[in-house]
Amino acid sequence: MGDNLLMKKRSLERAIQQTKTSDDFFETKVARIEDQLKAYLDQIQRLTEDRVQKIATFENTQKRQLDVRKSSQQLIDTLEEAQAKADRGRLDLAELQIELEKERFERKRVEADLETVRRKAEQLKSHADGSSEAEKLKQELGEYKEILKCIVCHDRRKEVVITKCFHLFCNPCVKGITESRHRKCPVCAASFGPNDVKPVYI
C-alpha cells in the first residue's frame, strides 16, 4: 500500500510538473500573442492616424478645389462681362462711325453749297467792282497824296529827311525847327542838327 501511494505521489508530481510546464508554455505563448496584439494595435493606431490625416488632406484639397472653381467662375463672369462691354463698345463705335459718315456727308454738302454761294458772290462782286473801280483808284490816289504831305503843316510835300530817325517833312517846317532852340523830331522827339537834314526826291 505504501508503494501505491508513492507511485500516486510521483504520478501527481509528474502531472503537476507537466501542468507547470504547460502553464509556462501557455504563459509564454500568451505573452507572445499579447506582444503581437500590441503590435497590431499600434499598427491600427498608425493606420487610423494616417487615415485621419489623409481625410483632412482630402478635405483641404476639396476646399481648395472649391475655391479654385469659385475663382474660375468669377474670372469667367468677369471675362463675360468684359466681352459684353467690348461688344457694346463695338456697337457704339459702329454707330459713331455711321454718325461720323453722316456728318462728313452733310459737311461736304454744306461746303458744296458754300462754294456755290461763294462763286455767286464773286460773280456779283466782279460786276459791282467793274462799276466802282474808278472810284477806288481816286480814293487810293487821294490816300497816296496824303501820305506824301508833311505831317506838320499837312499842306506841302515831304522834301527832306532827318537821318537820325528817318522821318520825312517839308523843308520849311524842318528849317523852322532847326532855327529854334528845341531841335527835336516832331514824331519821335529825337534830337538832330542841321547836318542831319538831307533832301529826298519823291
Automatic annotation (TrEMBL):
Protein name: E3 ubiquitin protein ligase
GO molecular function, one term: ligase activity
Pfam families: zf-C3HC4_3 (PF13920)
Record PROSITE patterns: ZF_RING_1 (PS00518), ZF_RING_2 (PS50089)
Sorted UniProt keywords: Chromatin regulator, Coiled coil, Ligase, Metal-binding, Nucleus, Transferase, Ubl conjugation pathway, Zinc, Zinc-finger
Species of origin: Olea europaea subsp. europaea
Catalytic reactions on record: S-ubiquitinyl-[E2 ubiquitin-conjugating enzyme]-L-cysteine + [acceptor protein]-L-lysine = [E2 ubiquitin-conjugating enzyme]-L-cysteine + N(6)-ubiquitinyl-[acceptor protein]-L-lysine
Localization terms from the record: Nucleus
Coiled-coil stretches: 79-127
InterPro entries: E3_ubiquit_lig_Bre1, Znf_RING, Znf_RING/FYVE/PHD, Znf_RING_CS
UniProt-listed Enzyme Commission number(s): 2.3.2.27
Domain of life: Eukaryota
Pathway: Protein modification; protein ubiquitination
Gene3D superfamilies noted in UniProt: Zinc/RING finger domain, C3HC4 (zinc finger)
Chief site of localization: nucleus
Family: Belongs to the BRE1 family.
Biological processes, Gene Ontology terms: chromatin organization; protein ubiquitination
Keyword Manganese: no
Enzymatic class: transferase
